[in-house]
Write a structure and sequence with these properties.
Elements: H1 4-12, E1 14-23, E2 26-33, E3 38-46, H2 50-66, E4 75-81, E5 84-90, E6 94-95, H3 106-125, E7 128-129, E8 138-140, E9 146-148, E10 155-156, H4 183-200, H5 210-218, H6 225-229, H7 234-243, H8 254-259
Antiparallel strand pairs: 1-2, 2-3, 3-5, 4-5, 6-8, 7-10, 8-9
Helix pairs in contact: 3-4, 4-7
Length: 266
């Protein structure tokens, strides 16, 4: 990391404009990079313990290490200043949740889903799992291409997990029972929920309220009715069902997903 003087200079080069998103892992701002007069996204993380400081360093490593991939958000640099860590990234206009309706057509969503899978494959090929795949962590650029972001939960396949990570509706069932699970397979489950949601506009769990859905998630109750009601290809439905196997050993790898007819089209 930079020296105190360098980090102060880096912070002074940024003018925070507005808050874009706030969560457990930090706050994301739209900012101006004053020397270049360009807009960037800045993630600010409170480093209030040795563990959060260590996670910040890991996130910086993963973010910058994969940012050259065309389907991963570009990370420009990172630094610490006083009690905070900062990650400066490219600013993209919308996430997949905000543009959800644009990808309800199966042909459109096939492309964006394939792009997300390619990003995940790059991670898995380097023995890293993302562990928080969801629409909010998939940004869409001006060309309509998907870019995976937020590596705050990412861990190495063999790395110990000190606490639960991920987002409740997208977490694999085994992640609630133990911290010693197959992280790559957990990513596949999250991708399966993502694909189901893109295809149907619903979660693959019974319930009409958020409380009912959360109860179904925690009881590991799946409901594929919405998938059967919608007029989607048998190929899409088959892939979802393969990815949402309760037994993690029965789920396909990310490389098998990319070779599946739903994804393997160019």
């Amino acid at each position: 990391m930079d020296s105190a003087r360098q980090s102060t200079q880096r912070l002074q080069q940024l003018r925070l404009i507005s808050k874009l998103q706030s969560g457990v892992s930090g706050t994301i701002f739209e900012a101006e990079h004053i020397p270049t007069n360009s807009l960037v996204a800045v993630k600010r993380i409170l480093l209030d313990s040795p563990s959060t400081a260590a996670r910040f360093l890991a996130e910086c490593k993963h973010s910058s290490g994969f940012s050259t991939h065309p389907n991963v958000v570009d990370t420009y640099y990172s630094f610490t200043h006083e009690a905070y860590g900062y990650i400066v990234m490219e600013l993209l206009p919308n996430d997949l949740l905000e543009q959800f309706d644009d990808f309800r057509n199966e042909e459109n969503l096939r492309t964006v889903f394939q792009q997300v899978c390619k990003a995940v494959a790059s991670l898995h090929n380097n023995n890293i799992a993302h562990l928080d795949i969801k629409p909010e962590n998939i940004l869409i650029n001006d060309d309509g291409d998907a870019k995976l972001c937020d590596f705050g939960a990412a861990h190495g396949f063999l790395e110990h997990l000190d606490c639960p990570v991920g987002t409740e509706f997208y977490r694999a069932p085994e992640t609630r029972a133990t911290s010693d699970y197959d992280k790559a397979s957990a990513d596949i489950w999250s991708l399966g929920v993502l694909l189901f949601t893109l295809l149907t506009g619903e979660f693959p769990y019974p319930g009409t309220t958020e409380a009912e859905l959360l109860e179904s998630v925690r009881k590991n109750q799946l409901c594929m009715t919405a998938l059967k009601k919608r007029k989607h290809s048998k190929t899409a439905a088959a892939l979802v069902q393969q990815m949402l196997q309760n037994d993690p050993t029965q789920r396909p790898t990310i490389f098998q997903v990319l070779r599946h007819p739903f994804c393997f089209f160019f």
